[in-house]
Amino acid sequence: MLTLRSYVSGSWQAGSGVPAVLENPATEEPLAQASSHDLNFGAAVEYARRVGGPALAGLSFSARGKLLSAASKALYEKRDELIGLAIDNGGNTRGDAKFDIDGAIGTLAAYGELGASLGETTSLRDREGVQPTRSAKLWGEHLWLSRAGVAVHINAFNFPAWGLAEKAAVAWLAGMPVISKPATSTALLAHRIVEILVEKAVLPPGSLGLICGSAGSLLDQLGDQDVVAFTGGSETAHTLRRHRAIVECGVRLNVEADSLNAAILGPDGETGSEVYDLFLNDVARDITQKTGQKCTAVRRIFVPASRLADVAADLADRLAGCRIGNPRDEATTLGPLSTRAQREAVRAGIAQLAATPGAQILLGGADAVPGLDRGYFVRPTLLRCDDPAASSAATLHRVEVFGPVATIMPYDDGAGLAQLVRRGGGGLVASLYSDDRHLVPQLVMALGPYHGRLFLGSARLSGQSPGPGTVLPQLNHGGPGRAGDGHELGGVRGMEFYMQRCAIQGYKPTVEGLLPRSSTPAT
């Protein structure tokens, strides 16, 4: 069996003790094992700070951008191999595997292009300078400068490629080295990605580390210049927020956690219209893509009350057309969940939603999939609730089932709709399918404070957009409240997490002489 070693302190190192076993979730076949026990986490962090940090921070944005472009090309050359690993270890269909891997390749390329546009400098100017007193000689500016620490990235099981790349690309362009900790259950893909980047010598030594296995005492090694970016469940996020390094040492923490993302069909989305078809296509895809194991997946669907039955029937028909099975079969459109534990959690979640007063299952359910005795499969599940505003319906707005599961609900007007969506407690993305010139701005203003991103589905966008479930590197990814209140990507904005904004005040010519010659303002 393949043993996944960690890449720390500039070398590949195997942990000791009883390893965790990685499986093929479609067949339950063991694929690899991993352990990080007895690794020297202190040395790993110190090596990244001492070697990788200065090497990256000493490069201009343009030079860092070239590294990212080279990393993107190196992964593209191995794309087919990576797709195969995602199918076997992630249970992804080929389309879902490409979604993950192409997302990683594309994000690295996008930040490579951004680096080129920022030019031959190592700092970013924040907005315009200011004369803080009556004296024209005294001048103030704000500069963003690279932090002198290490970025620890704790990634979720669902996107082992994209999750690694989207965090690392931003950190590297900002001038910080990275230690990446993928979820062990699907770490085979992340491990191979790091192998490729190390073999190609794409990055300066110390710029990239990898932990295969438990994070152990990794966070105990962090200090005031270090940062942690986490993607995963809210319970783990709560634990991280209480960690000594965060509370006492001021280590920065960015969290992307739970999200009950909403999709809304406007009253003008009549059956057969371009808006309606776009709505059905996007919602069906974002319920089932990656078997619903997507932080941006649609969990709650809101439609006009007068059309609830018809829309529910059309959506159920779309979902019923999924072909469930081993993703090695090209006819399969819905693969397994990633682990046995994940399958049991989804089954329990479906049962919890179905037990909500007024809720009923229209399609699917928690029962085993007929004909599939092995593997971690579930059926796409659509529930309906006719009174989502009732206090008894709170579970539907509180419990996220991380699988191909969503609930369709009615609304009467824009004000009531906004209140229903807000019951989710803050989300990564909400999508509105409408060309109504009154409703769209009303909901943008009402829902914007509760979401990191709003997707406006329009007839004019039909066939022109990847939909709400695709995270674009140029736009913010994160959301308030239960979503973690995090901010990732967003072009230059994402780099701020890895940099320090410093106010510089002094004699005006001296201060202006420190300004970068060519850069895009950070905000």
Number of helices: 14
Mean of all residue-level pLDDT scores: 96
What value does the Rg take, in angstroms? Answer: 24 Å
Low-confidence stretches: none
Query: Largest sheet, order of strands side by side?
Result: 15-16-17-14-13-18-19
Which structural class fits the helix and strand makeup?
alpha/beta
Largest sheet: 7 strands, mixed
Strand percentage, roughly?
15-25%
Q: What count of domains describes the coordinates?
A: 2
Based on CA inertia axes, which overall geometry fits?
Answer: globular
E-strand count: 22
Helicity, as a percent range:
25-40%
What's the name of the CATH homologous superfamily of the largest domain?
Aldehyde Dehydrogenase, Chain A, domain 1
Q: What this model shows, in words?
A:
With 523 residues, the chain is of the alpha/beta class. The protein folds into two domains: 285 residues, Aldehyde Dehydrogenase, Chain A, domain 1 (3-Layer(aba) Sandwich), CATH 3.40.605.10; 213 residues, Aldehyde Dehydrogenase, Chain A, domain 2. 34% of the residues lie in helices and 20% in strands. The protein has 14 helices and 22 strands. The strands form six sheets. A seven-stranded mixed sheet has the order 15-16-17-14-13-18-19, sandwiched between helices. Strands 10-9-8-11-12 form a five-stranded parallel sheet, with helices on both faces. β8, α5 and β9 form a beta-alpha-beta unit. α2 packs antiparallel against α4. It starts with a strand and ends in a 10-residue tail after the last helix. The model has no long low-confidence stretch (mean pLDDT 96).
